[in-house]
Amino acid sequence: MRALVISGGGSKGAFAGGVGEYLIDEMNNDYDIYFGTSTGSLLITHLALGKTQELKKLFTKVTQEKIFDNCPFRIKKKGKVESISINHLNVIRNFIKGRKTFGESNNLRKTIQEAITIEDFNKLKDSKKEVFITVSNLSRNKVEYKRLKNCSYIDYLDWIWLSCNYVPFMTLSVKEGCEYADGGLGTIISVEEAIRIGSSYLDAIILDTEFQYTNRVHSRNAFQALTSIFNFMTDKIESQNIKIGELMAYKKEAKINLYYTPRILTNNSLIFEKEKMKKWWTEGFDYARMKNNAN
User: What does the alpha-carbon distance between residue 260 and residue 143 come to, in Å, rounded to a whole number?
Assistant: First the structure.
């Protein structure tokens, strides 16, 4: 069985969309299994349906307002340089309301429902394709993989939303009696699980460079320090995921094609800018073409 696996990466998901478009539309790859973590979970429904152009229009138009109903940070621009700082008023407002996180991402849940219709869901449920969403169950201290065919429409949308909620900046929500958060907190890319359920050929899109090319700049405030810590942790989880996946692939005689970003796209993937994401989508498409033509 053939699988498409997409990692987490926030706004960098636009690059993955471009890679997916090339693999599906130009190479005519027909995948049996789709795994998405965090931003990857936002992409796989449309990719599984072959709706790459619709996905491109939707994803490259995402803004901060479509994600956050209470954004915990400010974005400042000085020329082409961007910096982020804490929006103290919004954070205090959230704590006064008794929330557990700095910001709230309920708008993202609405955006997901607008993007994925019940007709889309039913079409996939009736098909032979298998779609899985990776989530982190904080209450039970484990990663879970939610299978579309076992979900209702509303539950499926909820799992996608929960997979994307990058706590503590986004909503920490309770479902089925447990607290759930971003799937990337436990597994950045679900290569191991895809192989475990029978995938023998995998295209894995990793929204990070293969090697670290530069040192991260020093943090200027508490928000940047926190994001640097999370980035460090996710880099290590990602590296571990890939190493374990490659070892498992070797034992199971499965083949993995890894698609990394060829350059650092952004230092803060929580910033969604339409023009940049359009550019990243094109970069992803061109990179996939170059990589496959080279082979």
Answer: 23
The DSSP call for residue 206 is E
Q: How many alpha carbons fall within 13 Å on the CB side of residue 71?
A: 15
Overall residue count recorded for the chain in this entry: 295
Phi-psi region of 252 (alpha: psi -120 to 50; beta: other; left: phi over 0): alpha
Q: Are strands 130-137 and 142-147 parallel, antiparallel or unpaired?
A: antiparallel
pLDDT in tens, 54-83: 999 999 999 999 999 999 988 877 766 667
**Block residue for tokens 């209702």:** 152
Judge contact between 116 and 157, C-beta under 8 A: yes
Q: Which residues of 205-241 are buried (b: 16+ CB within 10 A; e: fewer)?
A: bbbbeeeeeeeeeeeeeebbeebeebeeebeebbeeb
Phi/psi at 43 (5° precision): -95, -30
Q: Degrees (nearest 5) of the Cα angle 171, 6, 29?
A: 145
Q: For the whole model, what pTM was predicted? A: 0.93
The SS3 of residue 151 is: coil
Residue 138 CA to residue 182 CA, distance in Å, equals 10
Alpha-carbon torsion 266, 48, 255, 237, what sign? Answer: positive
Task: Provide the angle, in degrees to the nearest 10, between the axes of the packed helices 13-21 and 39-49.
Answer: 20
Q: Does residue 132 sit in helix, strand or coil? A: strand
Q: In the predicted model, is pLDDT for residue 213 greater than 70? A: no
The predicted-structure confidence for 135-187, as pLDDT tens digits, reads as follows 999 999 999 999 999 999 999 999 999 999 999 999 999 999 999 999 999 99
pLDDT band at 210 (very low <50, low <70, confident <90, very high): confident
